[in-house]
Structure prediction request, 330 residues.
Amino acid sequence: MNDVAKRAGVSQTAVSFVVNNTPNTSIPEDTRQRILNAITELGYRPNAFAKNLRARTSQIIGFVTDEILISPYAGKIIQGAQDAAKVAGKILLMASTGGDPELEEADVETMLAHQVDGIIYATMSHHKANPPEALHEIPCVLLNCYDADFLFPSVVPDEAKSATIATKALLQKGHRRIGFINCVENVPAATGRLEGYRQALEVYDIPWHDELVCYGESHADSSFDCTMQLMRLPEPPTGILCFNDQVAMGVYDALRELNRAIPDDVAVMGFDNLEIIAAYLRPKLSTMELPHYDMGQWAVRFLLEHIEKKEYPRPIQHRIVCRYIERVSI
Prediction:
């Protein structure tokens, strides 16, 4: 700052006022411009560390995740969080742990040592998580997961409402025999999407049929077998709701082998909107888009709102509905 002051022919105080955008100062515009020119010529960078020490804030948000950083599927979570942080003038300090509890604890401790203002704890899939105990020491929001005792605020997809929307899309096309290939694992997405499917049928006064719900692994090989099972029914479905887009791949293969056209003979609805799958199947897959970007944004904004108030975030669970992406498979 002293070098800038000498180059611009002003006091160091004047440079400080300009660099920090200090309000209510009477720096003439030509003086301000000389200072800015000197900053550019000298390549001056303010010492953010020293500035943050004075303000008792790091302007950094920790972002601890299991596999999101290395996944092709959930990058929008990071994009949403980064965009929200950038608007607020914050930086995300990211750590990928691979789901290793010891590494999670070590990374959280490192972030606390660097005096981050708060931490986002994010997971690849929506599930009940066991966050490191040290997260109770700092404002924290769970992203795409929740803790067993609901001690932390969290943001997750609204699985039930989203599945209701997906099933209604099939019902609105006139389908009344709708199969559902669900995941056999006991995870929130499986239970929530099954409930949403059930609720949509109730709205349309469609009776429940156990034989129309098939359980398997959430990949194409298993869903191929489930589709064959559904299509062997005396009255097979005319529409199939899939647990996810990988499941839809198996459904496509099975229907092709049975010489059933999509959507003319059987309509297919996916879930997740994995664009490397959904947009490139033939015909292109109608599906529900997981609200990854919106969840990332909400988590950062909610965290910063409470940091600014100097209070720990309320332990609420916020749900965001998936967006219906209509293509041609229904």
User: Anything to note?
Assistant: The mean pLDDT is 93. The two ends are 65 Å apart (CA to CA). Residues 292-308 form the longest helix (17 residues).
